[in-house]
Amino acid sequence: MANHHKGEVDFTVAKKVYTFAFSINAMCEMEAALGGNVVDLANMMSDPAKMSIKTMRTVFWAGLRDHHEELTEVDAGRLMNDLGLTEAAQVIVKGFTLAFPEVQEPDPLPLTAPAPERRKSTGKAH
Q1: Would you say residue 111 lies in a domain?
Q2: What is the C-alpha separation between 75 and 81, in angstroms, rounded?
Q3: How many Cα atoms are found within 13 Å in the side-chain-facing hemisphere of 76?
Q4: Which of 60, 62, 84, 113 has the highest CB neighbour number within 10 Å of its CB?
Q5: Out of 1-10, 22-31, 101-110, 113-122, which region has the weakest mean confidence (pLDDT)?
Q6: 17: β partners
Q7: Residue 83 pLDDT
Q8: Do residues 10 and 20 touch, judged by C-beta distance below 8 A?
Q9: Structure pTM?
Q10: DSSP labels, the chain
């Protein structure tokens, strides 16, 4: 079962469950195969007009490497074909989303605590 905290996404083809994840090693495989860095590749993937099917297949293959090292890029293409191009694209997008969750910055803390309010002294003892 996929561990979403590790950026894993499960999908099923022909009753077999596959686990997809963009780990550090997967991203290195992807960069090596495509000759770019992961930021450039993510930008390319955000614009479907810039992404070829061959590139998409390589990205899909890289996301399978951690859990299915035996699969070739051609095997990844067959899985994409069986899964359907739209569903395969959704697996890739979900994998990237889980690999790069938005980091919420904490509210900045004041450098010094505000001074407590002081009461004005009336000079009289109570």
Answers
A1: no
A2: 10
A3: 26
A4: 62
A5: 101-110
A6: 12
A7: 95
A8: yes
A9: 0.74
A10: ---GGGTEEEEEETTEEEEEE--HHHHHHHHHHHTS-HHHHHHHHTSGGG--HHHHHHHHHHHHTTT-TT--HHHHHHHHHHH-HHHHHHHHHHHHHHHSPPPPPPPPPPSSPPPPP-PPP-S---
Distance CA 2, CA 9 (A): 5
Q: Determine, yes or no, domain membership for 44.
A: yes
- Is 120 within the bounds of a domain? no
Q: Tell me how many domains the chain contains.
A: 1
Task: At 24, list the tokens.
Answer: 């550090």
CA 78, chain centre distance (Å): 23
Residue 30 lies in a domain: yes
Pull the structure tokens for residue 50: 């810039």
Q: Please, which residues have CB within 8 angstroms of residue 89's CB and are 6 or more apart in sequence?
A: 56
Amino acid at 115: A
